[in-house]
Amino acid sequence: MGAAPVRRGRDTLPLYAVAAAVTVLVLAPLAAPGYALLYDMVFVPRQPLTWDLVAPAQSLPRAVPMDAVVSLVTQLVPGWVVQRLALAGAVFLAAVGAGRLVPTDRRVVRLFAAVAYAWTPYLAERLLIGQWGLLLAYAALPWLVRAGLDLRAGRTGALARVVLAAAPAAITPTGGLIALGTVLVLTSDRMRAPRSLLVSQRMHPLRSRQALAAVGVLNAPWVVAALVTGAGGSSDPAGVAAFAARSENWAGPLVALAGTGGIWSAQATPASRATPLVPVATVVLLILAGVGAGLLRRRLPPGGAPRLAVLAGAGCLLAALGVLPGGDAALRWAVVNLPGAGLLRDGQKFLAPYALLLVVCAALGAERLVARVDREVAGVILVGLLFLPVAVLPDLAFGGAGRLRPVSYPAEWQRVAEYIDEEPGEILALPLSAYRAYPWNPGRVVLDPAPRYLPGTVLTDDTLRVGDVAVAGENPRVREMRRALAEGRPVWTTGVRWVLVQHEVSGEVDSQVLGGLVRVHDGPSLTLYRNPATVRESSPSGPARLAVVAALSAALLVVIAAAVSALHRRATAW
What we know:
Blueprint lengths: L2 H25 L7 E2 L14 H4 L11 H8 L5 H23 L5 H12 L2 H8 L3 H21 L5 H12 L3 H15 L17 H24 L9 H5 L10 H6 L19 H22 L4 H17 L6 H11 L14 H18 L5 H12 L1 H5 L4 H6 L3 E2 L4 H11 L4 E4 L4 E2 L9 E2 L2 H4 L4 E2 L4 E3 L2 E3 L4 H11 L11 E5 L15 E5 L3 E5 L11 H26 L7
């Protein structure tokens, strides 16, 4: 009786050790104190729980429910701890999940899958653009796939595991859609293989519908927030070209996507992706995957591999749509006429299922290629393959070659937050800009931290500039502020309570627009003004925002119910 757990421990310990080593290698700079601030990655010491972070009234819910979750957690745990837990958890769980998903008895094959999945260009590029919420979805995907396959096989406790694996993915709208699509494709009884092959699939049609309903509830917070926001549902069609997949070397954007890269931002692309041999490495990986595809089909439950292929194919289509003939025109029409279609502009985000299938098939392909070789020689080859992802993408190590370095906020940020906390109200951040390059955060650009640091609704520019293209935002209140500033009207006439002028950043502020304001704080980095023409106000809750809270509460109850159910069942070896 005791031999099985001991053997299981011997088999899993190397996987956990390798996953931990990869995590340390990728995130080594985070051993230093402070906050790593890079593009969309913004953490603050204690993120206030404001209505605008829970249910944005004038902007699209791109960070719902992620901001609400961070605000709640940082009431108890400092932001720097949350950042490290989120990033380390994403890399570590991605590696362990991929290693466990591979249907093989060979330990080195599992280790290869673990390293390869935690060292993809997809992970590197999304890390360097700061989209840590999407990385949680990427890490949850192999666990969700395993749970979905178990649900189709009728295994006990699989439904609870589906919900618990989907929960971290649904922290962002894109991750939630990936999770919902995964559960739909893997468990739907409408996508059947031949009847003789899928006896178990007919056993629990109710469980499939329950899983879909539960993951749908996990997506409810951002869906409800999108329905009630005043920003509308359409997006600027200029974003289709700006966010389309990008060529990273001589082979073009489709080959970049085939290697799980191709993000739209050149600044978030590791320099090694431009080397001429990268497409060759991609072809080698594709060949390995092709060799291993048959092995995956035979080892997974009947119908499992084709469903994973459908999921990966859909992700590839969405990722490539912006560069396919006619695809860009279809996307431009969709983002203008279909509410919520703006989520599809950055289609490379949906490449995660393809990355997982590619890695799992490549690992099995490596196993199949060395099957007829002497065992010792095969071991050497597999160990060599283990280091191939690192050799092809060396600048993911040490936080993207040092780009993920922690810094400390100037002390006056906290003083300004305390002033505003005494008299809550709307805050205008000047100069108008979505991203900032601070001297105390050298060599990096970051999304303006003010909306997450200050206790109130902060108006920042939502126009995104990609090269020479300006992608317009959706916030009508910001458009009103932009018009007022362009006309030279005093800010006090707009009704904002506070004006925060940030120094040491690009952009100028006309002193005339600040006329009639009272200076409250004047420091080297920040100057805070109060508008005496407005009165103290509290942000109204209203039925729309209460609907978002209800959706958040429902999602939380689903997760709690799944956790309780899982705790009442015996642990399974998956």
